[in-house]
Write the structure tokens for this entry.
Amino acid sequence: NAGVTQTPKFRILKIGQSMTLQCTQDMNHNYMYWYRQDPGMGLKLIYYSVGAGITDKGEVPNGYNVSRSTTEDFPLRLELAAPSQTSVYFCASSFGQRHTEAFFGQGTRLTVV
Amino acid sequence: GQQLNQSPQSMFIQEGEDVSMNCTSSSIFNTWLWYKQEPGEGPVLLIALYKAGELTSNGRLTAQFGITRKDSFLNISASIPSDVGIYFCAGRLQGGSEKLVFGKGTKLTVNP
């Protein structure tokens, strides 16, 4: 049982480049989330989705885009990378409203130089 | 955005000691979750709480959902070296929001 899988694990981007962080889950969870974690800080919600075709902004959505075309996949897109987006990104999923336990992937460490 | 105040920020304890950490907020939550994160890994769920006053254990870990629904605590009894890590509280706000808000974490160091 793979759970939540994120790729890549590490990436270095130049300012202005774009990339997509991949996230897939095999638990048939409805809800999926993207968080970023800066050093010494908790996790801040970027975007979330309550089901295929539905996405919504979290606390820090600027500079990111998401899509949810299938239940399994929830990619996060950075269009014009900036140094402020250097962070560790975590994807998570949960069954839904009554089952809020979110299970996390192992993270993607992104550096923008 | 909504804030969870988690304390203490860090703890340095001796093996065998008990540990207590808590999260508070000015907002009401209908779910409290406690996670542990080890270096290079994603957070791992330890305990989930859904009712005010609920007290739940997971081995040496015990967590409670505060009666006011604005706080939660996590206790670890008889700490061992593998308890080292960062512990996060997370909560889902009352009102139907699907957002899960995280505290800034408590970094635990256990000296053998």
Remarks:
- Chain A has no helices and eleven strands.
- Chain A touches chain B at residues 4, 31, 33, 35, 40-45, 48, 50, 56, 58-59, 90, 92, 97, 100-107 (CB under 8 Å).
- The mean pLDDT of chain A is 92.
